[in-house]
Design goal:
The structure is a homodimer of 356-residue chains. By secondary structure, chain A is α+β, with helices and mostly antiparallel strands. Chain A has 11 helices and 14 strands. Chain A folds into 2 domains: 104 residues, Orthogonal Bundle (Hypothetical Oxidoreductase Yiak, Chain: A, domain 1), CATH 1.10.1530.10; 197 residues, Ribosomal Protein S8, Chain: A, domain 1. Chain A is 40% helix and 17% strand. In chain A, strands 2-3-4-13-5-8-9 form a 7-stranded mixed sheet, with helices on both faces. The N terminus of chain A is likely disordered.
Chain lengths: 356, 356
């Protein structure tokens, strides 16, 4: 299955998306999830790998299983609707796996948007939401403009503080076009995943990325503990507001509970926000797509910064990686492969075949 | 009226908010606006001064009058509803003054949110939107969480390009608390207003703020032409998505028209987005306010970065300035005073009394 032209990590084993989805779904089913839910979680994780967002991909499988075993993730959640209005739902996710709860929210937001023009699903008490672009892209394929947010525990410095106060709170916004445009970004300068990657390689990190455990700026990846917010007060302000419009409306505060050190605050918990706007209720969706294409073309016609080399749209690099990895397979770092192998042995699940 | 303790610009004249609102309303009425509209525009501009956002305050009065005289701002707009759904409205603003159109949108979004849980008003074909925090704060006072966005012409570099491609596209998010929390930020590293201020003082600007007319990075404020996006691809990506979910849904593209150099693209035009979420439809609004207060307290209890000196919430500095300037008056730079004086003479409006 390995393609000798695959540019990434030539010595790492690779496997196809189908193979990895089958393996992941099998693991989650063994861990107690209904088959349909296990398939959703597998699809969201492997999609992240296909897009090149490996920090949100199959390397999360062992962590998800740990969360189930610790009782923080519920493999058989009773997902219910707590409140409903003509344009919105507050969904009680009962500690469901993030992908299961967020897809439930996405489907609900799209349905509400078809009825009311705009639909909002607040997803209460979920777990690691996964790569948000998956959900906004799913809504964009239904003819929606979509916004997804996720709130979690404090792991990013609040501007002006020498300690973590807000979360990486990702924001994704997607719209349809001939190719959809999909922004998916953290409100921190750098994601926890990238910081952990730097820890593994040991390469110095740029100034302005992170603080050490005492809240002092550092460029040593091993000392780096707390990523800084993007653009100072703007990033931490956005993250704070995301907690307010997601966790506080859903009556499931995460930051305050954790900063106060309550028992609840020490558990793995997230909340999500998915909004859909039905383009067909405002005008002709085909005209909208054409205008997106026109805007992309206008931006790509600007003079290129030689340092950047190319003008990219949000989500464009991910789409290219998706195409390449769909064809050539997904590279799996040896450490991740080893962890998955150990997990497979422990659960009695057959390890997936790989290129090596 | 001048207070000797006023910390800003000790030699500048000052005037009270009431005085300035009366003057501004008089000017706009002379320029053709109905009295009620003139009062709204005056209130939004002077509110910005009270909050310390002088770039969005009375210094805009001459520019607004220019826009009316050029036919780009309509003093007597026929504001209509183009499309309406249970949770949304697309408002045709007919080139109304931004504050008039955006307040119409805010009122509509709040009304829709009371009916449907969530309300979205898209404001099509307005002009300079003013300080967005005014609108989200107005909605927060009605028990709403609110989001406002504004789209305008390309004046900020698109990441990877050596030219302007996106706009400063501000984002404001507000929620009620004992004191409301109000984020109001541009998606550029620095606002055009701050860049213009640096041009006036001649002080070197930090690296990473702006490009010169050829698209090269510069620290010379006089050479600086194009602000850079906040956090590189994140800021320009957000700005691009704001154009998509505001201008393109409203079928009034701004960036592409301008980048292509069409006749429409050379005119002053903006579009706005105001969303309200009715907290009472999701839970107890009093509990929500208490949770906001609790979160603020938890963040303010973090260890302070000595360089910052203090941990501030979004909008907190503006609230302090509001209190001080409400008491001590609003300082008016000599250049702005001179421009207003010349305008008053030209229109035959009495110049406002000031401290000097």
């Amino acid at each position: 299955m390995r393609n000798p032209q695959a540019p990434a990590a030539p010595t790492a084993p690779t496997a196809s998306a189908t193979t990895l989805k089958g393996f992941a779904a099998h693991v989650f089913a063994c861990a107690g999830m209904p088959e349909a839910d296990a398939a959703v979680v597998a699809d969201v994780l492997v999609w992240a790998n296909l897009r090149g967002v490996d920090t949100h991909g199959i390397m999360r499988i062992p962590r998800y299983v740990d969360l189930i075993e610790a009782g923080d993730m519920n493999a058989k959640p009773a997902i219910t609707i707590r409140t409903e209005t003509p344009a919105s739902l507050l969904i009680e996710a009962d500690r469901a796996a993030g992908p299961v709860a967020m897809m439930r929210g996405t489907t609900a937001a799209v349905r509400k948007a078809r009825d009311a023009g705009v639909g909002l699903a607040l997803v209460r008490a979920t777990t690691h939401a996964g790569a948000l672009g998956y959900y906004t892209l799913a809504a964009a394929r239904e003819g929606m403009a979509a916004i997804a947010l996720a709130a979690s525990w404090p792991n990013v410095a609040y501007h002006g503080a020498r300690a973590a106060g807000v979360s990486t709170s990702p924001i994704s916004i997607a719209v349809p076009g001939t190719e959809p445009v999909v922004l998916d970004m953290a409100t921190s300068v750098v994601s926890m995943g990238k910081l952990n990657q730097a820890k593994r390689t040991g390469e110095p990190i740029p100034e302005g990325w992170a603080l050490d455990k005492d809240g002092k700026p550092t460029t040593d990846p091993r000392a780096a503990q707390i990523p800084l917010p993007m653009a100072g007060p703007k990033g931490s302000g956005l993250s704070l507001m995301i907690e307010c419009i997601t966790s506080l409306i859903a009556a499931n505060p995460l930051l305050a509970e954790s900063l106060e050190g309550t028992a609840e605050g020490r558990r793995h918990r997230q909340n999500g926000f998915v909004m859909a706007i039905d383009l067909a209720r405002f005008g002709d969706p085909e005209s909208f797509r054409r205008e997106v294409d026109r805007l992309v073309k206008a931006l790509k016609s600007l003079p290129v910064d030689p340092e950047a080399g190319e003008i990219l749209m949000p989500g464009e690099r991910g789409r290219r990686t998706f195409e390449r990895r769909s064809r050539d397979g997904i590279p799996i770092p040896h450490a991740v492969y080893g962890e998955l192998h150990a997990l497979a042995n422990r659960l009695g699940v057959a390890m997936f075949p790989s290129s090596r």
